[in-house]
Amino acid sequence: MLASQRLHDFNRPLQDDHQFRLTYTQDLLGRRGLDVQDIVRRLVAFQVAIPSWALGTGGTRFGRFPLGGEPRSLEEKLEDVGLLNQLNGSSNSISLHIPWDIPQDVAALQQQLQEQRLTIDSVNSNTFQDQKEQPASYKFGSLSHTEQAAREQAIQHNIECVRHGEALGAKTLTVWLADGSNFPGQQHFRHAYQRTADSLAAIYEAMPSDWTMLIEYKPYEPNFYSMVIPDWGTSYSLCQQLGQQAQVLVDLGHHLPNTNIEQIVGRLLHFGRLGGFHFNGSMYGDDDLTTGSMKPFQLFLIFNELVDGARDEAVTNAAVAYMIDASHNTKDPLEDLLQSVENILGAYAKALLVDRALLADYQAANDVVRAEELLRDAFLTDVRPLVQEAYCQSGGALDPIGAYRAERIREQLIRQRGKLSLSTGL
Amino acid sequence: MLASQRLHDFNRPLQDDHQFRLTYTQDLLGRRGLDVQDIVRRLVAFQVAIPSWALGTGGTRFGRFPLGGEPRSLEEKLEDVGLLNQLNGSSNSISLHIPWDIPQDVAALQQQLQEQRLTIDSVNSNTFQDQKEQPASYKFGSLSHTEQAAREQAIQHNIECVRHGEALGAKTLTVWLADGSNFPGQQHFRHAYQRTADSLAAIYEAMPSDWTMLIEYKPYEPNFYSMVIPDWGTSYSLCQQLGQQAQVLVDLGHHLPNTNIEQIVGRLLHFGRLGGFHFNGSMYGDDDLTTGSMKPFQLFLIFNELVDGARDEAVTNAAVAYMIDASHNTKDPLEDLLQSVENILGAYAKALLVDRALLADYQAANDVVRAEELLRDAFLTDVRPLVQEAYCQSGGALDPIGAYRAERIREQLIRQRGKLSLSTGL
Amino acid sequence: MLASQRLHDFNRPLQDDHQFRLTYTQDLLGRRGLDVQDIVRRLVAFQVAIPSWALGTGGTRFGRFPLGGEPRSLEEKLEDVGLLNQLNGSSNSISLHIPWDIPQDVAALQQQLQEQRLTIDSVNSNTFQDQKEQPASYKFGSLSHTEQAAREQAIQHNIECVRHGEALGAKTLTVWLADGSNFPGQQHFRHAYQRTADSLAAIYEAMPSDWTMLIEYKPYEPNFYSMVIPDWGTSYSLCQQLGQQAQVLVDLGHHLPNTNIEQIVGRLLHFGRLGGFHFNGSMYGDDDLTTGSMKPFQLFLIFNELVDGARDEAVTNAAVAYMIDASHNTKDPLEDLLQSVENILGAYAKALLVDRALLADYQAANDVVRAEELLRDAFLTDVRPLVQEAYCQSGGALDPIGAYRAERIREQLIRQRGKLSLSTGL
Amino acid sequence: MLASQRLHDFNRPLQDDHQFRLTYTQDLLGRRGLDVQDIVRRLVAFQVAIPSWALGTGGTRFGRFPLGGEPRSLEEKLEDVGLLNQLNGSSNSISLHIPWDIPQDVAALQQQLQEQRLTIDSVNSNTFQDQKEQPASYKFGSLSHTEQAAREQAIQHNIECVRHGEALGAKTLTVWLADGSNFPGQQHFRHAYQRTADSLAAIYEAMPSDWTMLIEYKPYEPNFYSMVIPDWGTSYSLCQQLGQQAQVLVDLGHHLPNTNIEQIVGRLLHFGRLGGFHFNGSMYGDDDLTTGSMKPFQLFLIFNELVDGARDEAVTNAAVAYMIDASHNTKDPLEDLLQSVENILGAYAKALLVDRALLADYQAANDVVRAEELLRDAFLTDVRPLVQEAYCQSGGALDPIGAYRAERIREQLIRQRGKLSLSTGL
Predict the structure, then answer these.
(1) Kind and range of the H or E run holding B280
(2) Which of A153, B16, B365, D173 has the largest CB neighbor count within 10 A?
């Protein structure tokens, strides 16, 4: 961990410029009647979970180019998240991936969490790889497998994930199912769906009553003909059958080309079934790039729906779990995560600028130009001073990446963990 | 109408070759234990409705190149459908489009239907264009419109469609909603959905208890940012709210790139919510080409699901309404429709060849290669002799397009209706 | 035309707020060493041509909802463009579409152009529709037609376009070819290409030596299996065969899903073959929406290439012709055009902020995060005060749409031209 | 290797059925004046190279499920290809991947090649992964790298590939460049292109005068913002700069959604620049599935272009190198390859059925329906008896997969090579 004095020292020479820009932004938004302090408070409160698997260098099936200093244990992963949270004050929780992150010493881990003021956001099951010593293979599926033994094994693994999560205070199980088929005829669509529904029901039964099950969807990869849960409609139908604790998880990279994701977000909010979000950036498919790096306007429009839903009493469940789910093939993973969080906060801040009463008026009058311009005005406003102010008020760095580099953190990590360290699970 | 002797004369010189190919196909399939006569009977029984709007030359927003002889009235449209049905015995019904096809003299129309042994398949409402004298405009929506007057007008129009249909013995209302938005901010996603749901409920209420409402979905066009009903999940959720008479309609051209449509078909069958089908061909979007012209394997895989569902008692509703919904920019519309029906029958025939018990065994054993090869074997088999035999047994032409050309029907139609006749509605 | 005093009066109450924001922006950018006055000068100088066909309400193949007051003649189209140019000072030229815009009285038109300080940007040929009395039909192609008579007719039409253009001082012929096929087998790919190349050569020969031929490409629509010129590679190969006066035209809506358009722009600049640009916005295909409405970041990245090319001596031809090519189904066409121009100017202004020497350093060092952040910093900066200052310095309105509405211009046009006036050509 | 008697024994009980189907097919096609023996001869002569890397179980970035018995050395890879070639007589060559397949003992390898009657088809360089001890990293590119040392290393590696190939009698170097960028700003498009062109020129210079350099393109993956060679236009432009020995390689999985690949094939044939083909199957992206498994009609249309080009004297270079390039995540790799070859031969056989003179007549007359039906007729004809006859005449199995299973070859390989053997390179 960084000494807070270091951050203080880092911020000092940047304060003048920050105040210059912040003052202007406050004036600008104040002239429109916006409560800037309230926006900053909301930004301070906003938290995005960091997935344990995004702390090391990712890769594609074609290769991997690690840069060293990757966390070699769950404890080191927590250290990395703690560091990020020190820098930006917006990542106070971690998503675990079982079996990669099975805690060895729960009590010690709990203590570390407390010391670093972190929580466990959710546990993620893994039935897309075979683990050593595992009796049944997932080559042809897990919760949807034709053989009961494989299904049962996958069910028990998910329940085990819940147990690990309970020990650490988590309340969410995220199920991403890689099940599907690569060729026509391989899988019977209707039967595979029903087997999946039945398996999920068994897991749901075993879940504590204050837990949420998030059901992710994805149209393709690792299967390239069909996925058992390819779209929001399938996730939603499964949730309906399971009960109110089952919710849909939207991953930004899990859609066919040209999908209007923000509309899906609105749809699920309307149904009270939007449970969680996996942020990343994509241009072609599940590219797992930095959030907001490719389609910043789309990211804003998604937050526009989220904020709209959160402010609408008719929306029965607007408590969405936010998590990054990206891979870092090119950039330093920690820098990439700092960028992603910054882009997310920026999109959120812009969505908070929208005058929803006025927007409703324009929409009612079908004044398309004015309605669009209202959103564009929010999008085009430079809200970075507000995000930086939030960093500052959280005790973080005005420029998290700058501080990360100035402190030569990667170099330190390489010294501590080695040039060839590999993040567990990757 | 063609004198049946003419078809007889046309077929005579083709019979030798037909018998040569049919005999072989019977032997080939018989060796595998298939009941060829049963397959032919099913092909004879299979009927695809013809949409009234597909009988004239279509066009794109860039232009239209009519070829003449287009039907100038509903009566002439029935004549064209009757002719098609004479030629292939597979199109004994027509889908009406209101207001383009409002019958002037119901009794006369009923008589014509009887004489031509045709029925009215469904009525299709139109709220994507403004009609003269119409008080409210649909420029900004119809069933989802922000203004109650526009919604009410659209509701009444749909109810009026039902009334027209009742008078003619139809039992199906097809709702394709062009509502949506071209720009972010234009429409409030959640409110537009709810207004649509409420409007549909009002129509549903007014529908006789033996009618079915088919709810179509489409991701884009004529709106290019969002459509109120963009995907099967939205259609399905609306059907759930309305009741069991509401069913989803799948149009082959209404999907985002790379969508696995056959899986959606299986999904909806599983839910007992697949009510209808609009056949056409597409490579890019809603291209409205000849069915089967672009992705014949996909068409086969869709029929594979349909046949699988029809033979499975667990599927509670497999009574799917089949209709062509295409546009004919390049080809003679009647030739295009004959081709489409032939391609549909071919895909159906191939799906009937699949040994489902054996397929289930391969699937259970995860023998991917054998399961796939089983489907491919059906797909690669040349079933055209079976389709032609079905034509023959229905009193049609062994080669419908050949007969159409030999009889110089287009030339006759041009003489009767003129070179510049325009199909009503286009 | 608006009296300039009206614009002055309109601007007066907005000046305080404008100066507040402009001063800040100048300070902000000045601190980074940017010459804000130079940027504003470049914005003032930047001009985007308005296409004559975008001044009326467009539509889709499903319908059209005109709003009235559309220009009924070429003269009225010039009036509309003159009005736009008064409001934003950035649209001092018009693209003509032949035969929709064949001038009746050339001398009078020249005088009108002079009075309104407008020029003719380019002439666009039309071989995608049949005109009355035209001997050969373009149903099956024009420059690529299998029949020589049709090809010759299309060649002569293009040459005639050049002649009309010469009379009015234009120097550019834009060729968008709708030729292609809807079905496999319809067209012989290699022969169709060669016929097209030969036809273009005949037109090229007839073009004055100071003219440029722009060759547009489009992957689909109005043909849905193949287009003769579907991609930049085909346009480029044709240009290579024709000569240096032939250049590629990029239309933002003419690409397959997920295409990296900015890279194509860079590629063509590298080859000295980027001749022109058609701006519009799209989410799915050739949606023809307001420029920048859907993918503002992409628009910025495209301008980043354009500015980069313009500043690089190695780029032999960076004189790109800019034109809007959109359709207005929902919005008032004139408001849509004002928005488009504003979004274009904003993207251009942001691209001018990029420190290219520093970017080159980051790229050389493969400092991916810093290189990306440099671009993002420019993109996230609010440049609207600079664009407004450019409007102001050009004698236009600080808020062109606001002025347009305040002056009730649409209402005036409806009074003058009628509620049912239809723009010629639509 | 299988004793040929084994194949003879395997075929014997299948001969009756084969002759029944073959006789019919000969009659059917003979009635149309087709020379069936000539078609079979062409099928016998047709050869598709097998890539060394497709002999083991592939995988995705999410996991890998090997089935055992994979070849542990180049020698074992040759054994596998020899076996395939025994079974289908259509795969008499192998593509090497350097450094995975650097031969240790060239003389021994030459002898093995001779004994198995195999040749080396091409050598493929690898600059998308870092090899141990390699001084410069390819993390940020190879031939396009900003640093000369990395470029030089990649150039030398390619030249080394040529040297290895020369020793083994190969004549083709395939260059697939993974270079590109994941984020806007990371790479300067124009400079990266020029560096690539210069690097390729250095390799081209070092290539013997009877060699061909194949330049592959791919729009995305492993880079997800831009690839240096994303499309055929870029490959083509590089070939033009290099010289006539440089040719474009088309990989079926390397295109954006909805691309008309057969048209690209025709285009490159027209330019005399189609040098090679990588066959695989895809629904979404570079899915690397069994060739023909997803879009069999597209595969036929591609062969339609290839056959058309091969028969046209105007096409100056129709000597296309055919290779499979797939990955086998689900199926036994050898079965998958047998399927792929069968699908390729089937598509080729169908393309040989097309009456090109008649097609030209229909095209000249713009008889769209007849032209399309001519192609469809070929596609719908069941040509499997011809493919099987070709197997038979080559001394292979009438049912290669059946023989592979009957001989329990995978089980043998597992016994010989072990359950956990991993194919080198994967």
Answers:
(1) none
(2) D173
